């Protein structure tokens, strides 16, 4: 029986490049080599694609880029499923692929652009399609869609780069509508990159400028005094398995990039230390959000449980969650009965059966 040929994409041009390099090792180290032939494709910060044939241990630190055996690759858009590889003698050879496993985060990774290219190339791939990926990446559209679906979310507003010339008027509107403190986020970014907490007019302006480095739209949300929780979704759009609820106990004031990936003092509690009613509500909202947004394969759905009333408020949906050693998604799936190898296999099979 022929093995299934899997291209694993990692790296990318976004500010979450390093997270992707760390995440991909879970897939490379746990994929069943008896069942799958694996072809790692690394993407540099400059956007160059290379077929990497070396040790996965050299990926997290970035040493893979200097491997002398790296070969530039291009997607084949001529009906042949796979890549064209540029060999040392400048000839092109074909690298036929059955399915792609993107382990990419942020812009050009989980925002629908890569997914659109894979769809044009006729290649099955793990995760949501271009439309669902784009909708969930943009937090403003996520708010609009999920609120219209009856899912509670934080009060919010947004600003664009040209609006800064009217900052005084904007600040007055936001402070009246949301009140301080408030959270300032790039509309299109992940891993809490560019997220700040504004406690006054000056920090609001500074936070908007930080967020604008990541995107030209900025989401502003009321601060929720709550417990941060997450669910993992695995399956098809309308029949996804939703894991138990996990809880984040952040080492920082809020669960920012440092707390997620650098500060080992952050803790995870599975199951979350919340009421059974709140857990059931969080899982129901997660399943509804996954379906309404058209997600497929996998997602991590983040929410809050307010400390005062115990209300569940959905925060965001991440269609390509992190797979690092401290990432919640694989922990939740493992707690539900699938180890990493089984999770990787399930995701690939979902891609092939779409």
Description:
- With 354 residues, the chain is an alpha+beta fold.
- The protein folds into 3 domains: 4-125, 3-Layer(aba) Sandwich (Rossmann fold), CATH 3.40.50.20; 135-152 and 225-352, ATP-grasp fold, B domain (D-amino Acid Aminotransferase, Chain A, domain 1); 156-222, ATP-grasp fold, A domain (Dna Ligase, domain 1), CATH 3.30.1490.20.
- 30% of the residues lie in helices and 27% in strands.
- It has 10 helices and 17 strands.
- The chain has helices spanning 17-30, 113-121, 130-137, 139-148, 167-177, 201-212, 257-261, 276-292, 328-335, 340-352, and strands at 4-11, 36-43, 49-51, 71-75, 82-86, 92-96, 99-102, 156-160, 182-186, 196-198, 217-222, 226-236, 239-242, 246-249, 267-269, 297-306, 312-318.
- The strands form 3 sheets. Strands 6-5-4-3-2-1-7 form a 7-stranded mixed beta sheet. Strands 12, 13, 14, 15, 16 and 17 form a 6-stranded antiparallel beta sheet that branches.
- Helix 2 (113-121) runs antiparallel to helix 3.
- The longest helix has 17 residues, at 276-292.
- It is globular and about 65 Å long.
- The two termini are 22 Å apart.
What profile does the largest beta sheet have? Answer: 7 strands, mixed
Strand content: 25-35%
Rg, please?
21 Å
Strand order of the largest sheet: 6-5-4-3-2-1-7
Q: For the terminal residues, how far apart are their CA atoms?
A: 22 Å
- Taking pLDDT < 50 over at least 5 consecutive residues as the criterion, the unreliable ranges are none
Count up the helices. 10
The first-level CATH class name of the largest domain: Alpha Beta
Structural class assignment: alpha+beta
Helix content: 25-40%
